[in-house]
């Protein structure tokens, strides 16, 4: 068995995990969502000018749309301004897409929605090919908001943006939400909220394994622990075994021993400097054409152009 033990943060988002994440986003410590909301709201007109430069229609392609709360600021404004665009949320969860699409159709019956139930890169490749076939091809504008990029390692982020780049045409855009490095205490608190929501979110991984893989984790025998390292900008989440114990995972026919104090690494949430972002753009063949931050300078939405 590998040490340290690891669980991928991809598994956080079952129904309960998604619900807890919604609560985290509204907690006083989790500044990320409010900062990005402020950025999009303050700069929606500048963004619209950039998206429609050259009077081209555009296709707003959102990777992992979730409940689309922040995107709705843009959708609402673009509708009001009668912009010529289609919204194409991509998600591997059909139920998340159905909910979002129904919600948008209710709020803005005239908005063109083109939901893509697929893997990000397949869907991007198809949207690119479809728009190529049109007489006046729309510009693709990819949204990857909410600091989702922070959950990738440096290498994974480079690979991800290279893959996106290979599916776009010159002039297409990518708007990414990056959480910036700042006073370490602010970041540490965001992953250690006083209500214990992040703790419950982390422990829910074990509940999910119990339910889906017939395991017998006792949630009260594990604690949540978070470290933020200001030298490399990495916040890391762990679960810590509070005693010597042995877990069985029926579906995998596995017995897993834990020592007192042993950790399971569950998530990395990277925080960026301007140099990190410039390096990412350079390494993946994008240029930076827009840089927007909130009034505290906590978060940045950065526009890359192919
Ligand atoms: C989804 N992702 C950007 C969140 C983050 O901040 O890394 C997930 C999260 N983990 C703990 N709190 C929120």
Automatic annotation (TrEMBL):
Q: Which Pfam families match?
A: Methyltransf_33
Name of the gene? egtD
Organism, per UniProt?
A: Nibrella saemangeumensis
Against InterPro entries, the record matches this protein to: EgtD_Methyltrsf_superfamily, MeTrfase_dom, MeTrfase_EgtD-like, SAM-dependent_MTases_sf
Question: Which residue windows are transmembrane per the record?
Answer: none
Is Nucleotide-binding among the key words of this record?
no
Positions the record marks as coiled coil are: none
Q: Which domain of life is it from?
A: Bacteria
The record places domain Histidine-specific methyltransferase SAM-dependent at 2-305
Q: Which UniProt keywords apply?
A: Methyltransferase, Transferase
Name of protein: L-histidine N(Alpha)-methyltransferase
């Amino acid at each position: 068995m590998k040490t340290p033990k690891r669980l991928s943060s991809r598994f956080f988002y079952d129904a309960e995990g998604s619900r807890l994440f919604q609560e985290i986003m509204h907690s006083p410590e989790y500044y990320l969502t409010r900062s990005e909301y402020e950025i999009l709201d303050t700069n929606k007109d500048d963004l619209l000018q950039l998206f429609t430069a050259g009077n081209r229609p555009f296709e707003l392609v959102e990777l992992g749309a979730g409940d689309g709360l922040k995107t709705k600021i843009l959708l609402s404004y673009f509708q009001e301004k009668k912009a010529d665009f289609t919204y194409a949320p991509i998600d591997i969860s059909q139920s998340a897409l159905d909910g979002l699409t129904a919600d948008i159709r209710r709020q803005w019956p005239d908005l063109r929605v083109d939901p893509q139930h697929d893997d990000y890169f397949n869907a991007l490749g198809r949207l690119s090919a479809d728009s190529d076939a049109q007489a006046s091809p729309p510009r693709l504008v990819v949204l990857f908001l909410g600091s989702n990029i922070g959950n990738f390692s440096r290498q994974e982020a480079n690979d991800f943006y290279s893959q996106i780049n290979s599916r776009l045409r010159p002039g297409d855009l990518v708007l990414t939400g990056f959480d910036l490095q700042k006073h370490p205490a602010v970041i540490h608190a965001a992953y250690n909220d006083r209500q214990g929501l992040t703790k419950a979110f982390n422990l829910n991984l074990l509940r999910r394994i119990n339910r889906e893989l017939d395991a017998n984790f006792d949630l009260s025998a594990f604690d949540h622990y978070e470290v933020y390292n200001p030298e490399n900008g990495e916040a890391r989440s762990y679960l810590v075994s509070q005693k010597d114990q042995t877990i069985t995972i029926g579906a995998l026919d596995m017995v897993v021993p834990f020592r007192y104090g042993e950790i399971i690494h569950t998530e990395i949430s990277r925080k960026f400097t301007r140099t990190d972002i410039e390096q990412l753009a350079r390494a993946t063949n994008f240029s930076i054409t827009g840089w927007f931050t909130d009034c505290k300078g906590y978060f940045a939405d950065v526009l890359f152009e192919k």
